Automatic annotation (TrEMBL):
<dbReference type="GO" id="GO:0140359">
    <property type="term" value="F:ABC-type transporter activity"/>
</dbReference>
<feature type="transmembrane region" description="Helical">
    <location>
        <begin position="56"/>
        <end position="78"/>
    </location>
</feature>
<keyword id="KW-0472">Membrane</keyword>
<dbReference type="GO" id="GO:0046677">
    <property type="term" value="P:response to antibiotic"/>
</dbReference>
<dbReference type="GO" id="GO:0043190">
    <property type="term" value="C:ATP-binding cassette (ABC) transporter complex"/>
</dbReference>
<feature type="transmembrane region" description="Helical">
    <location>
        <begin position="220"/>
        <end position="241"/>
    </location>
</feature>
<protein>
    <recommendedName>
        <fullName>Transport permease protein</fullName>
    </recommendedName>
</protein>
<keyword id="KW-0046">Antibiotic resistance</keyword>
<dbReference type="InterPro" id="IPR013525">
    <property type="entry name" value="ABC2_TM"/>
</dbReference>
<keyword id="KW-0812">Transmembrane</keyword>
<keyword id="KW-1133">Transmembrane helix</keyword>
<feature type="transmembrane region" description="Helical">
    <location>
        <begin position="167"/>
        <end position="184"/>
    </location>
</feature>
<keyword id="KW-0813">Transport</keyword>
<keyword id="KW-1003">Cell membrane</keyword>
<feature type="transmembrane region" description="Helical">
    <location>
        <begin position="12"/>
        <end position="36"/>
    </location>
</feature>
<dbReference type="InterPro" id="IPR052902">
    <property type="entry name" value="ABC-2_transporter"/>
</dbReference>
<dbReference type="InterPro" id="IPR047817">
    <property type="entry name" value="ABC2_TM_bact-type"/>
</dbReference>
Amino acid sequence: MKKILAVEAKLLLRDWPGVAFSIGLPVGLLLILGQIPDLSKPDPAFGGQRFVDAQLPAQMILLALLTISFTVLPSVLTTYRERGVLRRMSTTPVPPARLLGAQLLINLMVALAAAVLVIGSGWLVLGSQIPANLVAFLLVFLLGTAAMLAIGLVIASVAPNSKSAPGIGSVVMFPLMFVAGMWIPREIMPETLRTVSDYSVVGPFVNAMRDTWAGELPQLPHLAVIVVGLALFSALAVKLFRWE
């Protein structure tokens, strides 16, 4: 498994533009949006917190997760399927599932690096707070990342080829960004849209992350939606995933 991880990591680094975009985009947006004066002022809509503390870092971490899970991961797996890599591995003592596990672990590490850079750059440049409850933050982050990667596996399963995989991922990603409050803060959403957000996995993920920033424990309904989403999409990925 260590050798597979090392090889996959090298291959991922060769495709450095995709990795750089997944990490650089959320960090760049965080620093740009953080320069807007009104976003650095306490806002009653966020319980007296600043937008750069209460909302922006969690949204940028979500953006990194969506980019990695919905574009990078499906592109790699569909390319492997097209080239017959997974099929050839099935005839060797190394099962293809190990390659899949290595890909998931590597993308998890990339997502973690993105989260660290978002939090660190916000703290150093904007004076943003770091999560006050780091243990709860890590739990929410791992559950949310696993759920996003499971959706990415579903996208890789239904994508007919490597060229269409990023497009399908984008079609799924942008509506999820909307219901997560990336365009319109959840606090000012219409009630119907807020309900959709509450059951969308990404909405509870952002809300749970915000709780950890405030030093609170994530609300159980938010965690429940994330866990249920993880279970459902994992089961769907197992059912639909094609090795060849």
